[in-house]
Every structure is written in structure tokens, then in C-alpha cells.
Design a protein that fits this description.
6-stranded parallel sheet; 22 strands
């Protein structure tokens, strides 16, 4: 396995490539693009990705731990495939990121701050999102299923789809008018 520690990678373009048997520890990736790539038997530990683009990346036997994404575009990623055990988290931070068609399953985002990110058409399933901050995030068509959203802050967030019957939301904070979306599964009519 090739190992890289405290290394900076800039302007790398990988398109339909296979990245095999690599270990990255505390590395920084700047303005890199990974399109339709497959990571096989790789490790990313506490890496930072700045201004990077990820499109439809796949993972086989690859683990990511506590990675930071700042100002990245991330499309079509299933994050559960990068998880290395039930107590680890592949993601440490999203800051001003654009995420579309991402799946998050059985991940812990407890007290996580999504920091002005847009999560479009994403899906959270069986995730711990308690005390997390989605304040002012664009969550257009993002669904939450069997998630713990207790004490989460969704004030000024817009576009979310949260079913009150399948999620725990006690103590969560919402703001008008988007809070009305919580009543959609009940097929009731609300007049102004």
C-alpha cells in the first residue's frame, strides 16, 4: 500500500480511474476533481478537501475518517460505503459545500454543523443528527427517514422533507413558513 502523510495534492483530475491501495493521512487536496472514480482498498484519515469536485465516486474496501470538505461540489456519493465501523464518521465538516444526490445511512452527525451548505435531493436514513445545525441551509427535496433530529436547528432552512411519524424531532427548532412542510403527510388543508 502506498502511504502519503501531510502531503498537499493540487489540481489533480481523475476521470473514470481506479485509485487502488493508497493511504492518505492528514493530506490536503486543493482544486482536485474525481469523476466516476472507484477507490479500492484506500484509507483517508483526517484529510482536507478544498474547492474539490466529486461526481459519482464509488468505494470498495475504502475507509474515510474525519475528513473536512470546504467549498466542494459533491454529487452522487453513498457515504455509508466510506464508513469504517459503527462508531467512526467519514465526515468531520462540510463548510459551504454543494451536495446533490448524496446518501447518508447509519452515520453520526451529532452536534454537526452543516455551515451554509446546500443538500439537494439527498437522503438521510437512520442517522444521528441530534443537536446538529442546518440553520439557513438549502435542503431542497432532502428526505429524513428514521433519524434522530432532537434539538437540531432547522431555522431558516428550506425545502426539507421530514416525516413526523418516522423521525424523532423533540426540541428541534424550525421557522415559518417551511415548518408547514412537516404537516404534509397528514393531508390536511391550512388556510392563511
Amino acid at each position: 500500500m502506498k502511504s502519503f502523510s501531510n502531503k498537499k495534492f493540487a489540481d489533480i483530475l481523475k476521470d473514470h480511474d481506479k485509485i487502488v491501495d493508497c493511504e492518505f493521512i492528514d493530506c490536503i487536496f486543493v482544486k482536485c476533481k474525481f469523476a466516476d472514480c472507484t477507490f479500492i482498498n484506500c484509507i483517508f484519515s483526517e484529510c482536507s478537501f478544498l474547492d474539490c469536485v466529486f461526481t459519482n465516486i464509488q468505494s470498495k474496501e475504502t475507509n474515510m475518517l474525519l475528513s473536512t470538505f470546504i467549498n466542494c461540489n459533491i454529487i452522487g456519493v453513498c457515504w455509508a460505503n466510506f464508513q469504517s465501523g459503527s462508531f467512526s464518521s467519514p465526515i468531520y465538516k462540510f463548510d459551504k459545500c454543494y451536495l446533490k444526490y448524496n446518501d447518508f445511512e447509519k452515520l453520526s452527525f451529532k452536534k454537526f454543523d452543516f455551515l451554509q451548505s446546500s443538500l439537494i435531493d439527498c437522503f438521510f436514513m437512520n442517522c444521528d443528527l441530534s443537536e446538529s445545525n442546518f440553520k439557513s441551509c438549502n435542503l431542497h427535496n432532502t428526505e429524513f427517514s428514521d433519524c434522530d433530529l432532537r434539538k437540531s436547528d432547522l431555522r431558516k432552512a428550506r425545502g426539507y422533507n421530514i416525516n413526523l411519524l418516522s423521525n424523532r424531532i423533540k426540541g428541534a427548532k424550525f421557522s415559518y413558513p417551511d415548518v408547514i412542510n412537516l404537516l404534509e403527510p397528514f393531508d390536511i388543508k391550512i388556510e392563511k
